[in-house]
Amino acid sequence: MSPSAASHHRSHSLLLLQKLLNLRDKASPLTLILDNLEQPAHPVLNEFMTRAKISKAKIIFIALSTLKKPPLADVFIRGRHKSLQQLASEIIPHVTPSPSSPNQKNILLFDTIHPLLSIPSHLPSFLQSIIPPLTTSCLLVYHTDIPLLPQSNPYTPTPLSVLTHLSTSILTLTPLSHVLATKAAENKSLPAPVFGLHSSREGVLLSLRSPSSPQGVVITMELRRKSGRVVQEKFVLFPSPPTTTAQHRQQTKGIGGVILLSDHPAFSTETTEEEGEGIQATFNLGLTEKQRRDREGVVLPYFDAQTEVGGGGGRILYDMGREDDFDEEEDEI
After folding, report:
1. Which of 213, 219, 243, 301 has its CA 20 to 30 A from that of 290?
2. Would the pLDDT of 215 be above 90?
């Protein structure tokens, strides 16, 4: 990939994620966030709420596992032990456009979707009723390490497959420390390390990241365009520090940084011009002007045999030298 094409790809990919995080231009009405015990979705949800506060969007937080209202949330709805109909009746009044502000943007955040997955076939109608077109975006958090009860009908699609089919974007979260450890093992041709529940050993909670681990979340984005084309890219999100509502009104630069995973120092393979000039080799593959002229003037052996005048075309002419040993049997052949 040429430098200009690589720069265009980098800018285009970052722009897509920025539009998704900022909820601009109806980037994704329904976003599915896949997290786990090793990498919870809290940093990403906080980033969405931080950017939504800047754009003056109403943040509606549906708590199915959270006990305390987040500081940046405008509306806090407790959804534990409520049916889909009861929950929809509480959400719809907050997302319905009012005559005074018909273009008010809303963002629905479900801290977990697992309590609502008892009947997967009811999810499409439920989500359609609470997501008005053009004004509301919805974020669903799905914990990939929490098992679900087996379904009675084996031909019924799983809840994850239903959510994957309905979502217009999917964000899979991985700790940056795990990705860096896997990359370091790959560079040394060692087996990739295993983390968390996949290690299948006791004391699994001890494998969680320590405070000294590199801070950052690796986001694998799968964005589905209206044309049907799927855009996939990996990013590193450095979360912004948590701020209260009052602090946030004074600090508009508290947004976390986002870079491509390929631009991270551990994954970058590009060599800068300064590094290239500093590399010194013990040999030189270039040719001087005199060496180039001398090479062009060299006459290859048996060059005349390649022409019909000199060698009859394809016949090799060989003149015996003084040191050659004449063999009569070979001459007869």
Report:
1. 301
2. no
